Structure formats: structure tokens, C-alpha cells
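Hello,

Our lab assistant flagged a job as stuck in the queue for most of the afternoon. It eventually completed. Since we weren't sure the result was trustworthy after the delay, we are filing this so someone can double-check. Below is the sequence as submitted and the structure that was eventually returned. Let us know if re-running is recommended.
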Amino acid sequence: MKKVLLVTFSDNADHQDTLFGMYEEMRNRSDWEAYLLCIKTPKVELQKSDHTWLVDCPERPGVTKKTFNLPLLVSIIHRIRKEHFDAIYFESLHTWNLPIMLMSGKAKTYQVIHEVIPHEGDSQVKMVDLMNKAVVKFADTIVLRNKTYIQDMIDRYGISADRVKYLELWRRYPAYTTPVHSGRVLFFGRINPYKGADNLLEIVRLCPNIQFDVVGRVDSQMQDIVDQLAKEKNVKLNNDYVTEAEMREAFVNCDWVIVPYNSASQSGIIIDAYKYSRPVIAFAVGAIPEQVDDGKSGYLVEAGDNEKFANKLKEAMKLSAEEYDTISSDAYQYGRKKYATGGAMNRFMELF
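-- returned structure --
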């Protein structure tokens, strides 16, 4: 029996859902013994046991006062060394990952890098690049969530090809969610420069007869654009913290999820859309084309062409109820086959 520790110190619900779901799947197997190390106050549901270690760690990968809680960090490392793990898998970047990698004995270490090329304009760009460079030096294996950026990873960080592995994203998957035919469009997620808030504003103005729900915390750099969005009559804004239940409500109550990004590695929002049986319309940037079966689970639009994006959205909103129900079902089935945790189990096992 192999013994594996799954780690995320992230306060991001997506990272937590990804790792918690895999932990639960692994706990049902007799050939693996899984442990979970995570933040003390997770945002998503977790099946707790004596194999779940919840700690009061720093919430962000940057340097905070809690980063220097050395007694806690040392106690975590001591506990890890005592268990003699075969492998330690880190789902997200964090400053504490590094000392754990260095001091946890003979366990093989696996670090996921979500952003090979940090997004220009993102307030965390320097920290992400610094963390990427650090974990590349110390992790045995680097795990990417898409194929598109494998060569970029090798070239940018000078890592040998045999140390880079591809492992597609996954999520817990609920049962099929019946369409509500609300006539609403959803833009969901933190409003950062790379996520195309400028594109969103233009698309909103090109589609005055379509109702948009814009849900997500605002990066300070985007405040001016968000203020302009707030003045549009066809926009409903929610820039507060959103609970898991409120997130589900936002997806269920829309017909289409839009991803008008300026750049992207991959998008967790697309997976969330499929979870709730909602098709997507997205710019074909980064690795997003790997996530959308064009014409089946949604539509891809040439990057940066807001007019074409708006026209595709208008066409989509004119689908008959029967046509929409078909693409809704297709999006769910496509997502379930590609991204459900149960289906990802074998791929995850093969990583080790």
C-alpha cells in the first residue's frame, strides 16, 4: 500500500474542491492510504477524519506574519516525517511548500503550477514567478494542467522534460442541473486585468438586450471599468465575497457562461460551468481551446474580437428551448467525462 499526502494551504475554493474530492476518492481505495493537509477554515465541504490535518497557516502564498510561525511549521514537518509518506502532492503554490519539500524525508514531491507564464498586470505576477522558480528547483516533479504550456515550462524555467507531467483538472461533479431558461449570461470570478473586464464592458454595450450577471471581487486596477459596468442597465453586479451556495445559484440561474479573457493558462470557470450544465462562450486564448468542444460544449471565438464574441452570444441566446437543452446536456456530459473526480482517479494514480 502506498502512502500519499495531499497538500493545499490555499484559501481558494477551487483548489480545495479539487484536492478534497481526490482525497475522498482515494480514501475509498484499499491500495492507497491518503492524508490531507490544508487550511484550518476551508470554504468547501470536507469529510474530516484522523487523516485530515487542518492547520492555521498563512492564507496567501506571499509573506505574512503567520509565515514565520516556525513552531507550527516545524511541528507539521515533524508529523510528516513520522508518517514516512511515499509521495507528497502540492495542489497550489505556498511559501510553506518549500521547507516541507526540503525537510520531509525520502518522499517524492509533486508540485502543480497553474500559471506557467504569470499574467501581466496581475498584482501577484512577481510573487508567482518567484514561487515558480523556487519550486522548480526543489520539487521532484512539476505538474501542469494543460499541454499547451509544457514546452514554455521547460524553456522558461530550465527544467528537464522528464520532470514535467501533464494532469488535467478535475472537480467534484453533482447530478445534471436542468436548464432554467433565464435569458441571463454570467461572468464569474475575480475581475483581474487578464480576465478581460475591458472586453466584457464592450460586449455588454454591444448586447443591450441581454442581461448580464457579473460576480467576483474586483482588482483595484479594474475599479474604473467596474464602475462603468455598474452604470449599464443590463448588468447586475455582485462584487462581495460569494459563498459556495451563492456560487452555485449564480451558475444555475444563467443560460450561458462567458470567458472573454485576454490571456489564460486554463480556466476553472469553464469546468464550473459544465458542472452545472451550462455551456460557455470563450475567447480562444492560452489553453482554453483544450477545454471547449467548439459547437458541442459551447463556442470558441477568435481572441480579441469583441464584435464577433457579441454576435456569437446573440446567436446563442436565440437558440430554441430544445436546441439549448441539447447543448446544455452536451456541456454537462463533456465536462463529466473530462473533469469529474472519479474519472480522474486513474490519471492521478498514474502520476505516482
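-- support follow-up --
The delay was a queue issue, not a problem with the job. The result is valid. The chain is about 40% helix and 20% strand. The mean pLDDT is 92.
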